[in-house]
Amino acid sequence: MKIAIAGSGAMGSRFGFMLHQAGNDVILIDKWDAHIQAIRENGLQVQYNGTEQTAHIPIYYPNEVKDQVDVIFMFTKAMFLGDMLEDIQPIIGEQTQVVCLLNGIGHETVMKEYVPLENMLIGVTIWTAGLNGPGQIELEGTGSTEIQNFIPGGEEKAKEIVAVLKDAGLNGIYSENVKFSIWRKACVNGALNATCSLLDSTLGEMFETEQAVSIVERIVKEFVEVAKEQDVELDFEETVEYIVSAGKELGHHYPSMHQDLIQHHRLTEIDYINGAVARLANEYGFEAPTNALITEFVHAKEQILKVK
Ligand code: NAD
Q: 9 and 134: one domain?
């Protein structure tokens, strides 16, 4: 299968690497000069569950790709999804399936502008990946990837992609209700990511405070209310319980937004997590004040840290 990875940072490189190892015809697409140069010169250097591997996968700038592909996995950060889709129009053919696995809510609104509905797939992955530098990634742990066709009729093609993910060890799952999984992951991220970033704390440190559970409850309550408007039934009690126990279990861990914002001074995906809940609540005629305030705090912190 001819596969393009659109956005080949940490996660894109994980998917690109594992799909390439499984024998697919993979190309990486990115615009980060040093990363592209390193991969062209030395291959993608992968620390893979304690082993060192090198994969020679072609990598291109978006304006260099011309040939249509069977499947595209989108792996930019959320705020760059539209730019990437705009730039890779030449490789999106009539049959090209485009799979969005970004964290956050509402990416279908952007996708629809560039991809016919019948070729759109949305999903969620709980794999992780880290970048050690240009051309160097570190992959540990395990995960899975749930996907579903955006509109009815695309089940067969979605299941073909699931099979390709399974063959590559990416534990593909065909979901009958991927919207639920997307919302649930966004809710978990929404309760923990911005909070630990603003507190400048690990999950463990956050849950040692007297306020942690009440903060989580306020955030989750608004997610549940807005999700309901989208016909997604998140269970308040179960979700809070899950978040509190996951937070305690991963005590020493800094969530990815902390790594992006506080450690590396990078832009966050807050507008697609807590910000999306606040925005959608307004569209439905009510307020999500906790998520709105958190979004403002994170944007203020981005400015203080002069993020790029
Ligand atoms: P990343 O910043 O490491 O990679 C994104 C890549 O996209 C970068 O290399 C960047 O240069 C490239 N890019 C952005 N806009 C571009 C454009 N217009 N043209 C070409 N290249 C462009 O981010 P990541 O950690 O791989 O995350 C990608 C998505 O996956 C995010 O939505 C993130 O929340 C989600 N995610 C990440 C992890 C993780 O462990 N890293 C886990 C689950 C989900």
A: yes
125 lines ligand 1 (CB under 6 A): yes
On whether both 158 and 195 belong to a single domain, the answer is no
Pick from 76, 88, 144 the residue to mutate for probing ligand 1's pocket: most ligand atoms within 8 Å of its CB: 76
89 with 6, same domain: the answer is yes
The answer to whether the CB of 76 is under 6 A from ligand 1 is yes
Q: How sure is the predictor about 250, in pLDDT bands with cuts at 50, 70 and 90?
A: confident
Residues 167 and 190 in one domain: no
- Secondary structure element (H or E) that encloses residue 146, with its range: strand 145-149
Q: Is 262 helix (H, G, I), strand (E, B) or coil?
A: helix
302 lines ligand 1 (CB under 6 A): no
**21-74 pLDDT, tens digit each:** 999 999 999 999 999 999 999 999 999 999 999 999 999 999 999 999 999 999
Q: Return all residues near 139 (Cβ < 8 A) that are at least 6 apart.
A: 14, 17, 46, 47, 48, 49, 129, 130
What's the domain range around 189? 179-304
**pLDDT (0 to 100) of residue 251:** 86
Cα end-to-end distance, the chain, whole Å: 35
Instruction: CATH number of the domain at 211, please.
Output: 1.10.1040.10
pLDDT at 216 > cutoff 90: yes
For range 134-154, the mean pLDDT: 97
Predicted confidence (pLDDT) at residue 229 exceeds the cutoff of 90: yes
Residue located nearest, by CA, to atom 44 of ligand 1:
103
